[in-house]
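Board notes (copied after class):
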Amino acid sequence: MNKCRTWVQETGINVLHAAFGFLEWTEPNGKASSFAPLVLAAVEIKKKKTREGPEFWVNGTGDKAETNMVLAEMLRLNFDVDIPKFEGGSIEDYLKKVAELAPASLDWKVRRQVAFGVFPSARMAMYHDLDTSKNSFDENEVISTLFAGSATVGAAPFADDYEVDHPDVEKKVPCLVLDADSSQFSTLVDVADGRNLAV
């Protein structure tokens, strides 16, 4: 639970899931088998103290259960196997469909198990964003500047702090939802000016 809480605090993403069904497979000439969840549903676990000891309550977050897309992408790329997307309904029916896909080259088993764990898959969106077959990065000005550099001579690698009380600066960021120190405020000013920056 602590690991999940850290993810939520740092990224705003809940990575605690209930995993329904696991795929176990062994590659050709492989000695060790691999094991991965098939269907993931985001959950929250709350701990309550009672006279008999701690109780743990598990609740869904309201998000739909989904196919483990990290596993699906790995199977597609490495073994040319497309597992179907879970679109609701019976978990058992879905597990049967996956079991029927067993390629001849793999020792393929579907396990009827349920587990709770931290399954971060937020990076899949970034993975798809970086797909060079879908995007042309050589024409992107920001990426070109990042990798090839710019013609600016003597530019400092760090941004300067602005005088936050100066009227011309203050009007660029008139309202703050939370308190900000001078460097955070200066970052907001740079964003308001349309500058590209890494924080």
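Comment from the instructor: The chain has a mean pLDDT of 81. The radius of gyration is 24 Å.
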